[in-house]
Amino acid sequence: MSIAERPRHALRFRGRSFLALALAPEPPLADWMADLDAWSDKSPGFFVSRPVVLDLSALPIDRDGVAALVADLYRRDIRIMGVEGVDANWLGLGLPPPLTGGRPAGPLETIDAQRARREAARTVVAPEPAEAAPSAAAPEPPARAPEGPHSLLLREPVRSGQTIMFPEGDVTVVGSVASGAEIVAGGSIHVYGALRGRAIAGVTGNPRAQIFCRRFEAELLAIDGLYKTADSLESSLRLRPIQAWVDGDAIQITTLD
Amino acid sequence: MAKVLVVTSGKGGVGKTTSTAALGAALAQQGKNVVVVDFDVGLRNLDLVMGAERRVVYDLINVVQGDAKLAQALIRDKRIDNLCLLPASQTRDKDALTEDGVARVMEELKEKFDWIICDSPAGIERGAQLAMRHADVAVVVTNPEVSSVRDSDRIIGMLDSKTLKAERGERMEKHLLLTRYDPLRAERGDMLKVDDVLEILSIPLLGIIPESQEVLRASNIGQPVTVSNISSAPARAYIDAAKRLQGETLVVTIPADRRAGLFGKLFGRRAA
């Protein structure tokens, strides 16, 4: 069969951004791993089908150590899609590609730093088609939404099994968030109805994010990486209108009335 | 204009097949041309509940794959002339359903019937998605307990995203049918109350089917409950639900079998 006259299509690579979870192990590694296991026990399936980036900048580690760590995480069903903070030459065949352009995570005070991070730090850009090696060439910058207030308004209830992912800013739901549904926002989350699912605010590293709801029955609250499950929440808050925020290293919750 | 209705729930065992048979029969009794279609390929039950299991020759899969004509597979009900059944295959699985084949069968059914009622399999996979794919209206069958309600919520999300209607940007008409409801147990707090379920699912209520021995009896003798005992509480609830589907506005009540009669029966049996 001849393929001589096949019409040629121009190959197009479009930027596409995915929000990745950044895992940053801390020394001693064994303790960190034990903490991770304890955490995973409480939230089984949390890492399934989520892109995860391994940030090794805080961990003194050698070439073999990286491979062992990636394998350890693989056994825990955590698939690493990229590694930050190690020598790119270490990441050969069978290991995830190196990622650059991510900035080390840390507390963010200024709005500018926040914005910079939102745009760069944890937003991983992969060229399309996805099979192309992300490290091969500098990908195009992601298509930016026009500058303006970043918020997402949902006028329908969020149903069980749905995930609303909005790393760009606040999410407002006029209606309820069902048990088994999930809202992930870069900013704050406002629910004018019952919050029965999971609310994950400040996911791009924003400790000033807050969660508000009219009726509190949530399965999990998280702000800026800190989280609380329904089990660890005070029962006096149930069914009440509440707000949640981060104070130091803990999530605080109080009723609104 | 033919209407395609899917009876769905997510969770199994909540009464999809019973409700499909009862609603289908009720709509037919109200003068409509009705076909009930079993989409539960591999675990067919609708033929049993309709009392047609001994007359199945060809099935939905045969028609979808072009091995039989639609007219050969349709089974006309013995009691109600304008009610037909399109059975599922028991020997195949859901992969035997093709999207094009189902679309073709649906178009053909729309020419012949006023109501096409699709009995969805449990779950959220291919079978359930194909059953809801062509629907204009959905009846979400829910029991008053938390797992059933959450599964129904998941299904409502899929009705709003995975159906042709949703993909065209139109609004899917959805109704809640609360089955196996026991007012006494709900009052005691053993069961979710009607208002709780409505508050969580926030779709309009089509009817409340009370928990009743009549439903089990009807299934076992192979008759829709609206045929086997038309004056029983569940039959009256289904008949009202069928009227609401056709646009009638009726106040939703919880029909009850006379309690005294029930106790009378119990005591009578014990004395005997």
From TrEMBL, chain A:
Organism superkingdom: Bacteria
Keyword list, A-Z: Cell cycle, Cell division, Septation
Family according to the record: Belongs to the MinC family.
Full protein name: Probable septum site-determining protein MinC
Bias kind Low complexity: ranges: 122-138
One Pfam entry name: MinC_C
Keyword Iron appears in the UniProt entry: no
Keyword Cell division: yes
InterPro entries named among the record's database cross-references: CAP/MinC_C, MinC, MinC_C_sf, Septum_form_inhib_MinC_C
Gene3D superfamilies, A to Z: 2.160.20.70, 3.30.70.260
Record text on subunit structure and interactions: Interacts with MinD and FtsZ.
Location of the region described as Disordered in the Swiss-Prot/TrEMBL record: 120-150
Species of the source: Alsobacter ponti
From TrEMBL, chain B:
Functional summary from the UniProt entry: ATPase required for the correct placement of the division site. Cell division inhibitors MinC and MinD act in concert to form an inhibitor capable of blocking formation of the polar Z ring septums. Rapidly oscillates between the poles of the cell to destabilize FtsZ filaments that have formed before they mature into polar Z rings.
Family the UniProt entry places it in: Belongs to the ParA family. MinD subfamily.
Name of this protein: Septum site-determining protein MinD
Subunit relationships: Interacts with MinC and FtsZ.
Occurrences of domain CobQ/CobB/MinD/ParA nucleotide binding (ranges): 5-225
InterPro entries, alphabetized: CobQ/CobB/MinD/ParA_Nub-bd_dom (IPR002586), MinD (IPR010223), MinD_FleN (IPR025501), P-loop_NTPase (IPR027417), ParA/MinD_ATPase (IPR050625)
Keyword terms of this UniProt record: ATP-binding, Cell cycle, Cell division, Nucleotide-binding, Septation
CDD domains: MinD
Keyword Nucleotide-binding: yes
Organism: Alsobacter ponti
